[in-house]
Design a protein that fits this description.
It is found in: Cell membrane; Membrane. By secondary structure, the protein is mainly alpha-helical. The chain has helices at about 5-40, 55-65, 75-90, 120-140, 145-175, 180-185, 200-205, 205-220, 230-235, 245-270, 280-290, 295-325, 330-360; strands at about 100-105, 105-110. It has one domain. It contains 13 helices and two strands; from the N terminus they run H-H-H-E-E-H-H-H-H-H-H-H-H-H-H. Strand 1 and strand 2 (about 105-110) form a beta hairpin.
Length: about 375
């Protein structure tokens, strides 16, 4: 890899991290607007036109609020908890392919922080570390409600990671690779008719696996109806009860970054990632009818894939918010029963079913 290519990839990494933070910040605004619309009330409308400056006002408030350390708390671990949660959330976005490679002469730039052939394994490893941020914060607070919330979060994440991992094994059986970019590229069918690309998406080959992954994604991100670690009616505020200022902000922002990451992974694994309908007809139009050079046609084609990828991500984020303001919270025993007695056996059945379909040649 040349120095110029390293410079381009460094720029891509900075852009990915910056976009992750920006989207997480404005997810707080979107959450309020969607909640207001669904509850037939006025949402944020004071800070800036249509309330668009509300996230910036919230950030200023978080940075300027008084720092608070509970009595008897471990200050070092109390500070480490939210930092670890935010760091792992940002790290997990590094291997997601937001677009295909762009071409600038002899230089090829992948719209992906880092391309590794075990990208899915990397995400699972980093996401598994995120629970330590929650556990450390809850334990270091010296508060029984925070500790109970942290224990709930740890047991919930461990339980649903098993079902999610089993659901992804079926995808790996079809794709034969752990590289997220390769999985995306396999979900395309250049020789098919106009909408053939859509039917090459894994959601049509793995409908059961997708449903399992979706349910586990809600549990992994601690979102309603699985927000038991933050159960306000029982645990005050859960594991971040004692947090204030920007340390609380890091926990809140890391949750939205995790939502961004899980919807991006869902888009890559099941909805074709940066592939979109009529993409090869569009490329043919740019190359042969619009009269553009090969590089320009290819780069516009790639940028449209980036737009398609983010449209899928935003639709996923909207779905997460819609569910939050629609469904009631599970009881904790219902949560654990669903994970251990329903999702895990269903995921194992899905693996056996996928293996049978591959053996008989129905799925290729």
């Amino acid at each position: 890899m040349t120095f110029e290519t390293l410079g381009w990839q460094g720029l891509v990494i900075l852009v990915v991290f910056g976009l992750s933070l920006l989207i997480a910040t404005y997810c707080t605004y979107a959450e309020r607007v969607i909640a207001a619309f669904m509850q037939d009330r006025v949402g944020p409308d004071r800070a800036g036109p249509y309330g668009l400056a509300q996230p910036l006002a919230d950030a200023v408030k978080m940075f300027t609020k008084e720092e608070f350390f509970p009595g008897g708390a471990s200050k070092a671990l109390f500070t480490l908890g939210p930092c670890l949660a935010m760091t792992t959330a940002l790290m997990s976005s590094a291997v997601i392919p937001f677009g295909n490679a762009m071409q600038f002469g002899d230089t090829s730039v992948h719209l992906q922080g880092i391309e590794i052939n075990v990208g899915m394994l990397y995400i699972f490893g980093v996401v598994s570390l995120g629970v330590y941020g929650v556990m450390i914060g809850g334990w270091a607070s010296n508060n029984k409600f925070s500790l109970l919330g942290a224990i709930r979060a740890a047991s919930q994440n461990i339980s649903y990671e098993l079902a999610m991992g089993l659901a992804l094994i079926a995808v790996l059986m079809i794709s034969g690779t752990l590289s997220l970019r390769e999985i995306t590229l396999q979900q395309t069918n250049p020789g098919a008719w106009h909408l053939g690309d859509i039917f090459a998406w894994n959601v049509f080959k793995q409908p059961i696996g997708f449903i399992i992954f979706l349910v586990c994604a809600f549990a992994e991100t601690n979102r309603t109806p699985f927000d038991l670690p933050e159960c306000e009616t029982e645990l005050v505020g859960g594991y971040h009860t004692e947090y204030s200022s920007m340390k609380l902000g890091l926990y809140l922002f890391s949750e939205y970054i995790n939502i961004l990451v899980v919807t991006a992974v869902m888009s890559v694994l099941y909805f074709g990632g940066f592939n979109y309908p009529f993409q090869y007809e569009f490329l043919d139009f740019l190359s042969n009818k619009a009269g553009l050079s090969a590089d320009w046609a290819h780069n516009i084609f790639v940028l449209m894939g980036v737009v398609a990828m983010f449209m899928k991500i935003f639709m996923g984020i909207f779905f997460f918010m819609w569910v939050r303001w629609t469904l009631p919270r599970f009881r904790y025993d219902q949560l654990m029963r669903l994970g251990w007695t329903i999702l895990i056996p269903l995921a194992i059945f899905n693996i056996l079913l996928t293996g049978g379909l591959i053996t008989t040649g129905i799925i290729k």
